[in-house]
Amino acid sequence: MIRAMNDGRFRTPSPEIRRTSTVLFDSVAQLRATLRGWRSGDRRYSSYATHGTPTTAALERLLLAGEGGAGVELSSSGLAAITVAMLAVLRSGDHLLVTDSAYGPARDLCTGLLRRLGVDVEFYDPLVGAAIAALIRPTTSLIWMESPGTHTFEVQDVPAIVAAARTADHKVVTAIDNTWGSPGVFRPFDHGVDISVVALTKYWGGHADLVMGATFATADLIAAVRETVLLTGACAASEDAFLVIRGARTVDLRIREAGERALVIAERLAGHPRVARVLHPALPADPGHALWQRDFHGSSGLFSFELRRADGSPADQADADADALTDRLIARGRFGLGYSWGGFESLVMPARWSGLNRDVRPWTGGALLRLSIGLEPLEGLWSDLEAALAEG
Ligand SMILES: Cc1ncc(COP(=O)(O)O)c(C=O)c1O
């Protein structure tokens, strides 16, 4: 359904792009009323572009409808949204539990900036489940999840982790990077998670033409999230917000379509002699399949597979095989070689060029290639993959 967001007689399906730094006031009385309204958390009031514009506010309404939560704050990138979520909760001396399977730059944020600020960072096994209770200390203030995990696609037992956090003697906030599952594939707030972070750069934007992030939170945490965005100035721009609004019109269709195509390709790869293993939780053989079936409403278009050499032996991480396969695949024209994902275009990335850093659960398997399946005709994508695998 198209809902008009503008006032006045010329009503359009999409909001205007309100490009500005400054908000002009007709009087000091109006300035005062604006500041009062804004301080009360009413998003119709803004006194400066970093506090939001009508365009970013329109996007926030669409995002909340798709992801849930009591409120959302936009940031300039997915990584900025992760930073905002963490800084909103953590104080010097706090203990932070981070899944070992977290997105690489989020790990770097923890080991770099947060440690420097006095946060005690500990990585935990993504498959820990209810046993995370034993890792919670009196100083633990935040448990960071990402499910499925970056590159290795471990599914976390989110309800068990949330339950452990809730039974702790003090408040332990749970947060998840839900970029793989947003919107609709995984609904963190239905499982009691306090904060969800989504890189809008991926499915919500969907067209590989912007970076933006969103931090969603429950009612008791959204004020701290908002304060952190304001303190850091990590805001998003109207022009990009307009593009995400455009992406939001089709995001449900695109994520479902990419997910269905990816699953067909994952199933075919699983039966291919050059493939040792496919890491995709919707496949019945995947170790995370039971949790995925219980908690997810589908899957998106991103998964990995582990390569076998032509003689059938496992290709190791540093093997040139994965690089050579990647070059053959992109030469056929339908896949691009690039870091992002979740867009209309299919992409491949050998995991070793993206960093497979792990502290607790090192990857001991062979060379991993990550595929982001886009919206190109399925048989064309498969024929490029099949040909690239056959040529090696
Ligand atoms: C799981 C995940 N979270 C967050 C991000 C960060 O998003 P951005 O590129 O907008 O900073 C990425 C980017 O690849 C990602 O894969």
Write the layout of secondary structure elements.
Blueprint: H1 28-39, H2 54-67, E1 71-75, H3 78-89, E2 95-99, H4 104-116, E3 120-124, E4 140-146, H5 158-166, E5 173-177, E6 195-199, E7 213-217, H6 222-232, H7 238-248, H8 251-270, E8 275-279, H9 289-295, E9 302-307, H10 320-331, E10 336-337, E11 347-350, E12 368-372, H11 378-391
Parallel strand pairs: 2-3, 2-4, 4-5, 5-6, 10-11
Antiparallel strand pairs: 1-7, 6-7, 8-9, 9-12, 11-12
This protein binds pyridoxal-5'-phosphate.
Pyridoxal-5'-phosphate binds at residues 77-79, 103, 150, 177, 179, 199, 201, 211, 213, 340.
Task: Describe this protein's structure.
The protein is globular and about 80 Å long. The longest helix has 20 residues, at 251-270. It has 11 helices and 12 strands. The protein has helices at residues 28-39, 54-67, 78-89, 104-116, 158-166, 222-232, 238-248, 251-270, 289-295, 320-331, 378-391; strands at 71-75, 95-99, 120-124, 140-146, 173-177, 195-199, 213-217, 275-279, 302-307, 336-337, 347-350, 368-372. It has 2 domains: 28-248, Aspartate Aminotransferase, domain 2, CATH 3.40.640; 251-391, Aspartate Aminotransferase, domain 1, CATH 3.90.1150. With 392 residues, it is of the alpha/beta class. The protein has a 7-stranded mixed beta sheet with strand order 1-7-6-5-4-2-3, with helices on both faces. A 5-stranded mixed beta sheet has the order 8-9-12-11-10, with helices on one face. The mean pLDDT is 94. It is 34% helix and 15% strand. Helix 2 packs parallel to helix 7 (238-248). The protein binds pyridoxal-5'-phosphate. Residues 77-79, 103, 150, 177, 179, 199, 201, 211, 213, 340 line the site of pyridoxal-5'-phosphate.
